Amino acid sequence: MFSSLLIASLLALGINAQSPVWGQCGGNGWTGATTCVAGSTCVKSNDWYSQCLPGSNGGGTTTTTTRTTGTGPTTTTQVPVGSATLYLAGDSTTALDQGTAYQGWGAQIGKYLSIPVVNNAVAGKSSRSFTDLGYFSQMYSRVKAGDVVIIEFGHNEGGGPQGNPQQGVCAGTSLTTTCNDNGKVVYTYFKYMTDAINSFKAKGAKVIVSSQTPNNPFKDTSGTPIYVDYAQQVASQTSVAYVDHFNYLKTRYQTLGASATNALFPQDNIHTNSNGADVAAQALIRGALCASGNPLAPYVKNTSVNPPNCL
What does the record list as coiled-coil region(s) (predicted)? Predict the structure, then answer.
């Protein structure tokens, strides 16, 4: 009798240890289950991510298979992408902007991915104005279940509604705090971000909150902005993925050194040229690959990005 119960318990533990369909089942640094539930197969996307995909596995144990696309030396294996699309919400550091002299990372990230990118970022906007001017609403109408949404704000939130009309938000992390901008009710970054995240989640999209990009650290020594910490907090409180874009990119700048980094900022200490946009895009990719279970990781077709290591 005891033996039967022990066997049943062990079997139950084995079943519970398996990843569900669409769940992660492997990759560098992965410490979770490496087998999939019956009816799915563990498929390698790249060195950093394997995923349980619906397949012909009839039992409880799977072997990892690999599906390869591309022949270039820096192109790795990847899962079938289906019809997923990546949508971006952010400010000028993400946006397409003006040509090569002034470009956000969203203009460059597509070449590292196997899914299309829709860059909805708008220069000069904050989480508040992106909400008030209807940009989030436009995105909601297009995003579908299975799509990935990256939201990155922070550069334009500061100053409060009095010091930064139209863009500034209320201080703090409360969802109920309000302040006033010439008679208009204003909320916190947390409130605007939480509302946006929950709306995308309700449509079945996979949301990633990204911390803002750093200013040129060799010209701006003001330290880490409060909205970097806020981004991580709001991601945690809404149970969505987080990418520490700020610190991954700052690490890359430090490796490049002052001269090379300064060349990426031809106009000011915030906005990069196209080369800088590419450096920033690579840093975000690395951050996504290093974050266990990040929904962007399955769609990375080129993992040879800098910085080369996780933080």
Answer: none
Residue 186 contacts residue 179 (beta carbons within 8 Å):
yes
**Catalytic residue of the set 19, 40, 92, 210:** 92
- Could you tell me the two tokens for 302? 């080129």
271 is catalytic: yes
The model's pTM is 0.78
How does pLDDT run across 35-77, given as a tens digit for each residue? 888 877 887 756 666 766 656 554 443 444 443 333 222 222 3
Give domain status of residue 306, yes or no. no
Q: How far is CA 29 from CA 24, 48, 175, 293, in A?
A: 12, 8, 35, 11
Establish whether 40 is a catalytic residue: no
Q: Is the pLDDT of residue 84 over 80?
A: yes
Residue 50 in domain = yes
The active-site residue, picked from 9, 137, 174, 268, is 268
